[in-house]
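Lab notebook, design round three. We kept the backbone fixed and only want residue identities now. Task for the bench partner: fill in a sequence for the structure below.
Input structure tokens:
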């Protein structure tokens, strides 16, 4: 009887933990499918931004506008950047951008971390998970 009890304890499945593990695995697999076909994001620019120098000018205008008002919406940021682009020369924007504090790179999401993992590590981690 004692042996049967100890074996039952060894093989007992905690159903609550198992449900959490299954949900986590499903989320990881869903994220992998969603992010498998991610395309590169493109910088949106006004029509007058055509040449390479114009792209640099626009990028600096956006960076400076965002630094001045970091919590504005996309539409307001667009308008602020357009005003800076039209009203301030490239040299002045370069000087203003040089004074901006360095940005911390944003931490990637769990889905992005999952997508970046080497395939061998993914298959190993999937096979190591208890069900």
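Proposed sequence:
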């Amino acid at each position: 009887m004692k042996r049967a009890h100890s074996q039952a304890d060894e093989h007992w499945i905690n159903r609550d933990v198992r449900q959490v593990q299954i949900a986590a695995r499903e989320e990881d697999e869903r994220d992998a499918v969603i992010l498998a076909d991610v395309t590169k994001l493109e910088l949106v620019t006004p029509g007058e931004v055509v040449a390479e120098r114009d792209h640099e000018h626009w990028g600096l205008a956006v960076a400076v506008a965002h630094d001045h008002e970091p919590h504005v919406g996309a539409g307001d940021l667009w308008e602020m950047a357009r005003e800076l682009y039209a009203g301030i020369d490239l040299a002045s924007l370069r000087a203003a951008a040089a004074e901006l504090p360095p940005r911390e790179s944003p931490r990637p999401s769990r889905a992005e971390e999952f997508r970046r993992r080497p395939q061998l590590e993914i298959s190993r981690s999937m096979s190591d998970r208890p069900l």
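Keep this in mind before ordering anything: The chain has a mean pLDDT of 77.
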